[in-house]
Amino acid sequence: MSRITVLGGTGYAGSAIVAEAAARGHEITALSRSVPPEPVDGVHYVQGDVTDEATLASVIEGADVVVGALSPRGALADGFRDVYRSVARIADAAGARLYLVAGFSSLRPAPGAPRFVTDLSHAPAEYHNELSTVSALVADDLPATPETLDWVAVSPAGKFGAHAPGERRGEYRVGDDVALGGPTGGEISGPDYALGLVDLIESADHHRAHLNLAH
Ligand SMILES: NC(=O)c1ccc[n+]([C@@H]2O[C@H](COP(=O)([O-])OP(=O)(O)OC[C@H]3O[C@@H](n4cnc5c(N)ncnc54)[C@H](OP(=O)(O)O)[C@@H]3O)[C@@H](O)[C@H]2O)c1
Question: Is the dihedral of CA 204, 109, 17, 61 positive or negative?
């Protein structure tokens, strides 16, 4: 059993991860500004803002693992990378491993090829900030953290999210930073992304790595 703190544990990805990890007997703390209408039994929901360092510290200290499931939307559209700089610093000091819910655009179509984010012409303009912000976190910010921080960024397949929740198949594939779904993206349901992420947390055999999950 691990003590796992999920930042954004009530969002699309976060709530699936919370449900999966709690069902396996992990001790879960979920931080968000609002509490969910249907809380998962046994989960400790903390209402607070990730831009407040004291709140962040209070939920990270004592955790074995921190899962970052925030999105750079709304009030976090600008401060997202700063929040994760604080998360990385606090997690490193606390000796907690950090798992980031990343995005498809930070993956590559082939080994060593430019990341999808370098050409966003296929994506509607309203998503460009989100895609490039999350990609910068994966490509620039996490690799620049002290070597003592154990982080894993896990990109979903292209078809993933509240608009396309899908169903639990109980299966997934794990790849490195080359998209398993290829340039067309592939897909992964919320429950199967959570299954894969919690398996990665439990196996703990990737370190300072960028991975992807797809059906
Ligand atoms: N195919 C793809 O590549 C793909 C698709 C979808 C998502 N993603 C990525 O997956 C990640 C998670 O996305 P998502 O769609 O699951 O996000 P989401 O549903 O928008 O959830 C965000 C979570 O963060 C919480 N939150 C927001 N602002 C906060 C604050 N200031 N303080 C504390 N909590 C806060 C929200 O709860 P409150 O609002 O109550 O605070 C919620 O729990 C993002 O990085 C996103 O880019 C990738």
Answer: positive
Residue 34 contacts residue 49 (beta carbons within 8 Å): no
Residue 50, ligand 1, Cβ within 6 A: yes
pLDDT average, residue stretch 22-36:
97
Q: Which amino acid is at 25?
A: G
Tokens of 171: 């299966």
Q: Is the CB of 75 under 6 A from ligand 1?
A: yes
Q: Which residue from 102, 83, 88 is spatially nearest to 157, judged by alpha carbons?
A: 102
Q: Answer yes or no: is pLDDT of 122 > 90.
A: no
Query: Region 14-23: what's the mean pLDDT?
Result: 98
Which ligand 1 atom sits closest to the C-alpha of 104?
3
Contact 174, 196 (CB under 8 A): yes
pLDDT, one tens digit per residue, over 154-190 is: 999 999 999 998 899 999 999 999 999 988 899 999 9
Ligand 1 within 6 A of CB of 69: yes
List of residues 6+ apart from 195 with CB closer than 8 A? 20, 168, 170, 172
pLDDT tens digits, 55-67: 999 999 999 999 9
Question: Cα of 14 to ligand 1 centre, how many Å?
Answer: 7
**Could you tell me the distance, in angstroms and rounded to a whole number, from the CA of residue 65 to the centre of ligand 1?**
18
> What percentage of residues in the chain have a pLDDT greater than 90?
96
Q: Tell me the three state secondary structure of residue 96.
A: coil
